[in-house]
Amino acid sequence: MSQNRSTRPIQSLERGLVLLEAVADAGRPVSLADLTPVLGLDRSSVFRLANTLRLRGFLIQLPESKQYALGSTIWRLANRLAFGNALVELAREPVNSLAGQTGETTHLAIRVNREAVLIDHRLTKRAVGVAGGAGRSVPLHCTGVGRALLADCDHEHLIGLLGDAPLARFTRRTITRLDDLADECRRVRERGFAIDDEEHDDGVRCVAAPVRDAGGQIVAAMGISAPVARLARDRLPAVGKTVMAAAADLGERLGYAAPRRGKRTAPKALAPRRSSRRRRCR
């Protein structure tokens, strides 16, 4: 009996989802009078549900007719899903290549709010390795892919994204101060790749690099994870170059043209784009 209670759906949430599906299925703006019989509720209850969805951006209310239609949040989520699916397809060869060259578990990740979400992976074929899994979320501040996604962020941007409270600790090596994370982001920009040195999981090191789109913005990260016994610190620069090359390959497929090498007036990752606008953390 207790198991049935624990799996019983939350009624108000279920009703809200039914309402959302009804608006989507209608294919046109709908009124409260249209929605009331679908839910079997009184008009005021349907209004409260629709208004909550409106406040969250899932619905909009047309000013003249007061009818409801799908809002920007729906389209934003749908576009993110479509982009993720397209990115996985575009990244297939670079991800396979990186996995083949390193022999280690390989990840492709995007940022969703305050986390990095793994959208594709290749598991190592070695007897001992690091697990992976598409759909898994990991922190931004203490993982390789997370720091690669944050590479363009300065201290101010990090506060806006993560807040100013101490960051969560996962191991004794995890950095928990925002100042330290800002320094890490600067180092990622300078060398071109991020390192997680047993900061999220004991006994695991990760190397990742940012993937940029045609506008030069970071839209994803590619990286590898391996046991520290196989990924010694003195191998990190060489592995970093391999990871950067795979990330650059994917970036080129997205239309990114890396700045030409020339006078080293600034670190490579900070070299000016053709556009006068600066890259920004987003």
Provide a compact summary of the structure.
The protein has 282 residues and is an alpha+beta fold.
Written overview of the protein:
Helix 6 packs antiparallel against helix 10. This protein has two domains: 69 residues, Arc Repressor Mutant, subunit A, CATH 1.10.10.10; 191 residues, Beta-Lactamase, CATH 3.30.450.40. It has 282 residues and is of the alpha+beta class. Strand 7 and strand 8 form a beta hairpin. It has ten helices and eight strands.
From the N-terminal CA to the C-terminal CA, the straight-line distance is 47 Å
CATH class of the largest domain: Alpha Beta
Just name the CATH architecture of the largest domain.
2-Layer Sandwich
The fraction of residues assigned to DSSP E strands is: 15-25%
What is the arithmetic mean of pLDDT?
A: 85
Using DSSP, what is the number of strands?
Answer: 8
Give the overall silhouette. elongated
What is the CATH superfamily of the largest domain?
A: GAF domain
Secondary-structure-based class equals alpha+beta
Total of domains: 2
The number of helical runs is 10
Fraction of helical residues: 40-55%
The biggest sheet amounts to:
6 strands, antiparallel
Stretches where pLDDT is under 50 for at least 5 consecutive residues are: 1-5, 263-278
Radius of gyration from the alpha-carbon trace, in angstroms: 23 Å
What would the CATH topology of the largest domain be? Answer: Beta-Lactamase
Order of strands across the main sheet = 5-4-3-8-7-6
SSE succession: HHHHEEHHEEEHHHEEEH
